[in-house]
Amino acid sequence: MSRLTATEVAHNLSAVLGRVSNGERVEVMRNGVPVAIIALPEARAISATAFRDLLDTLPAIDETFAGEIARQ
User: Fold this and answer.
1) Which residues fall within 8 angstroms of residue 35, CB to CB, at 6 or more apart?
2) In what order do the strands lie in the sheet with 33-38?
3) N or C: fewer beta carbons within 10 Å in the chain?
4) Is the overall model pTM greater than 0.85, yes or no?
5) What are phi and psi of 43, to 5 degrees?
């Protein structure tokens, strides 16, 4: 993880975000004290109930598609 001052981040935000988008984590320092970490967002998980509810909204699988999947 690299460290940058808040001023460096402010002056180079586009470049910093580019580094973050490539997977780097950046610790932001203010007066020598860490105040933030800029990183990619963590993947969000949903509950099993919410996932089932989401699956219930999908259209039914037609028989042709089901047969194609079974052959693979």
Assistant:
1) 6, 28, 29
2) 2-5, 26-30, 33-38
3) C
4) no
5) -60, 140
Q: pLDDT for 7-60, tens place per residue? A: 999 999 999 999 999 999 999 999 999 999 999 998 888 999 999 999 999 988
Under CATH, domain 2-71 is a member of which superfamily?
A: YefM-like domain (3.40.1620.10)
Tally of residues, the chain: 72
Distance CA 41, CA 44 (A): 9
Question: What are the structural domain ranges in the chain?
Answer: 2-71
Identity of residue 1: M
| Residue 28 CB coordination number (10 Å) | 19
Least trusted range by pLDDT, from 1-5, 16-20, 68-72: 68-72
Longest alpha-carbon distance in the chain: 65
